[in-house]
Fold:
Amino acid sequence: MIPGFFKNKPVVIMKKFIPFCLFFLSVFVAFGQVQYQIEWQETNQTYVVSLVSQATWESPQNITSTAQITIKAPTGSFEPVNLTNLQPNVVFELNSRHDAPEEAPAFDYISFGLQTMGTGDLHYESGKTIPLFSFQNAGDCSGALFLVDSNDPFMPPNSKMANIANQITILGAQGNAWVGNVGEGKADCSFSTGTKDETLLARGMSLFPNPVKDQLFVTFEWAGPAGDMEAILYDVLGKEAWRGTVQFAPGANRIRIDMKDLRAGVYSLRFEGGDFEHTLQRVVKN
Structure:
């Protein structure tokens, strides 16, 4: 051994090791991660799904090749309608649905998938929330919706051979960047913060027959002034299938809606006019 050979070497080694560690840490942080978020907007009775990025990726590192977002709702209570994409040139559509699987019979699982694969139109900035799409329920409030997490009992492998996992593949992340959900990943329409309740204006609103073949009737007590309302039928994809004007009058009302020319399927009926908006539970057309 050469005397004094290692005398000053630890300092040299540490000087080289520290920059290496900082470089490794910077690479790890650069990969970054993404969380999903779901919110309930009471004013327009709408759910909004967003992503929150923990990293900044500029072109071409922001290229997003695939993405899936899965929600779960109480069994038999939720039919998404009026799906609206919120980012230009970024399209999400209903991907799949699995109702009451044996692993979690209390829930229906609904997945939305990115259709514009390979898009460069999502602009990721650290700490920035990017609204992706919104939707409504064809029926009345069904309670809380949840984004699935990695511990969900219906995660693959499962009885339906279904892939419900949330994911988002970003070039800058070198793979799946999804790491979880913001907060509880929950949106609950049953907690109201507003002061206006449309049921105070339209009491006891119900429809019959349901299923319907030709004529649908809606009955209720109207506590507001007389006036015209827009009646709108949406199909299960959220597309408008019929629109007409109906008259609301103070007191007992019986509205007739002609559905004989519509295709068989599931619809939601919505009334809009002035400050009043209300969506009835789903209507089944035979």
User: Anything to note?
Assistant: The radius of gyration is 26 Å. DSSP finds one helix and 20 strands in the chain. Residues 9-30, 192-197 have pLDDT under 50 and may be disordered. Residues 198-285 form a domain with the Immunoglobulin-like fold (CATH 2.60.40.3080).
